[in-house]
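Margin note: ligand = CA2.
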Amino acid sequence: MANDASVLVLNGPNLNMLGVREPHIYGSTTLDDLESACQERAEQLGLIVDFRQSNHEGELVSWIQQARTEHDGIVINAGAYSHTSVAIMDALILSELPIVEVHISNIYKREPIRHHSHISAVATGVICGLGPHGYLLALDALAQILDRD
Ligand code: CA2
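Resulting structure:
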C-alpha cells in the first residue's frame, strides 16, 4: 500500500517563517528546504507528498476534511494551534487516517503553555524535539503503517 500512497504534510501558523527568525530554536532550515527534503524522502519511500502551510485555522480544518478522501495519511505540525485548537483535533478524528504529529522543538522543554497538545491525544504517534529531521521520521513511520494496512 505504501507504493503511491498519498500523504498530506500540514504546517500551521508561522511555520512559513522557518529559517528566517529564531534559528536558535528552529534552526536555519526554511520551509522550502523542508518541503524538498520531504519530497526526496517520499520518493525513496514510494509515497506522494502534498506539502502545505497555512496561518488560518479554518483552512487547515478544510484541508484535513478533504484528506479523508484524497490522502492515505497525515503528518501535521499545527504550530501554536496544537495547543489551542479543538476544531483541528475534531477534523483529525473525522479523517479516520493515520496521523503523525511533529514538532521541530521539544515542546516539553519550553514554556508550560506548549506542554499540552490537543493533537497528541488523537495522533497515531508524536515526534518532537528532533528538528526538521522529525518530518522525515514521520514519513518513514507512515510508510510502515500504510504498508501494514
Ligand atoms: O516546535 C514546533 O514545531 C512548534 O510546533 C512550532 C510552533 C510553536 O508555536 C509550537 O509550540 C511548537 C511555532 C512555529 C513558529 O515558527 C517560527 C519560526 C521562525 C521564527 C519564529 C517562529
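Helices lie at 23-26, 31-45, 57-70, 86-95, 133-148.
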